[in-house]
Amino acid sequence: MGERTWLNGAMHAGFYLLLAASAARVVVRHEITDRYQLALAGAFLLAVLYGCGVALWDRLGSALHVWLGLVLTVYIGLVILAPSFAWCAVPLYFLCLRLLPAKATVAAAAVLTVAVIAGQLRVAIVDEPSLVLAPIGIAAMITAVFWALQHEIREREQLIDDLVAAQDSLAAEQLRAGALEERERLAREIHDTTAQGLSSILMLLQAADRSWGTDRARALAGQAAAVAEENLAEARRFVRDLSPARLEGRTLPEALRELCADTERRTGLATRLRVEGVPAVTGEDVDAVLLRVAQGALANTVEHSGADRAVLTLSYVGDAVALDVHDDGRGFDPDRTAPGRGFGLPGMRDRLAKAGGTLAVESRPGGGTTVAATIPLLRHEEA
What are 276's strand-pairing partners? Predict the structure, then answer.
């Protein structure tokens, strides 16, 4: 029976109740003459015909219109024989409204209304306007209410379709945004680990090549192998979206001290760490962001600054943690950096922004460079 099964079931049940009530009224109030016997036989036929249509509703398809025509024909003949069956017109109105287009529905409703009026006038002792106006009023009200309900249902279905389409579009957009975010994450991880590691390995191997065959060359080759091993571990971890390898089993200050020692050993850049304030529990995410910022800043110092010394300052100040990386290199003009160069500073800013932090860069030609990262801690404690 399709949609709104409960409403359709109520209409079918109402039809049979009215048909039974009308037949009972004929038996109780009239002498069963040949005419009324024929009417009762017609009521039985109508009941069987109506029931067959309901039972075979989904199978009839376009033949439903033929079935409806037969039902209406039998009913019109029945109401002419016995006007007591006039009330059965109400559920038949709904049946026409459900199955027929607008113009055909008006025509069918008019035929049913005329049949009811004719039947009532034929047996009426006194002709009165109510015999004509009441059926017309009932048919008009039923038609108006049904069409209003149909219009509301269509609007709701359209609204549901629009909502589903909007949800599909939002889901697709979220999928694209997620893919882009993951791509950016991988790009930052590759830059901060593999790319920087490969750059260090290249410099170590170039230095080893210049002193090939000496103990220094062997030491440099060993350092290159250690960097390769460390970056392999980092690559495995960021593929699994884990914390940086240096933070495994270490606090942030310990990881930064190890980073400083490794940087000095591999590059010759004198690198120190200072910790100010009372160390606070910052969380794995904050620690990972600050460690990556330190790695990126030191990599930039080694590659671009020509510095002899770098100092990392980790400060715990109230409700924030800050990391400053200062070098005594050649410096640069932050307002005149080449756009689109690598993932260094932009990658740091993206990482910090996702953690609710900020990045500031202070530098001038010949005056060294300071990279300052700050992350508020209250946000993470509340989260």
Answer: 315
How far is the C-alpha of 309 from the C-alpha of 264, rounded, in Å? 9
Residue 377 CB partners (closer than 8 Å, separation 6+): 280, 282, 286, 319, 320, 321
Please report the domains of the chain, with CATH numbers, ordered by start residue: 5-127 (no CATH), 249-383 (3.30.565.10)
Burial of 375 (0-12, 13-18, 19+ CB in 10 A): buried
Query: 382: pLDDT confidence band, cut at 50, 70 and 90?
Result: very low
| 324-341 mean pLDDT | 77
Alpha-carbon distances, residue 138 vs 109, 145, 173, 244, 317 (angstroms) = 10, 11, 52, 78, 81
Q: Which region, left, alpha or beta, applies to residue 277 given φ > 0 means left and ψ of -120 to 50 means alpha?
A: left
At 383, the pLDDT band (50, 70, 90 cuts) reads very low
- HEC letters along the chain: CCCCHHHHHHHHHHHHHHHHHHHHHHHHHCCCCHHHHHHHHHHHHHHHHHHHHHHCHHHHHHHHHHHHHHHHHHHHHHHHHCHHHHHHHHHHHHHHHHHCCHHHHHHHHHHHHHHHHHHHHHHCCCCCCHHHHHHHHHHHHHHHHHHHHHHHHHHHHHHHHHHHHHHHHHHHHHHHHHHHHHHHHHHHHHHHHHHHHHHHHHHHHHHHHHCCCCHHHHHHHHHHHHHHHHHHHHHHHHHCCCCCHHHCCCCHHHHHHHHHHHHHHHHCCEEEEEEECCCCCCCHHHHHHHHHHHHHHHHHHHHHHCCCEEEEEEEEECCEEEEEEEECCCCCCHHHCCCCCCCHHHHHHHHHHHCCCEEEEEECCCCCEEEEEEEECHHHHHC
Q: Say how far residue 169 (Cα) sits from the centre of its chain.
A: 8
Question: Which distant-in-sequence residues (6+ apart) come within 8 Å of 303 by Cβ?
Answer: 199
Higher-pLDDT residue of 309 and 194 is: 309
pLDDT tens, residue by residue, 175-218: 677 667 666 666 666 666 666 677 777 777 777 777 787 877 77
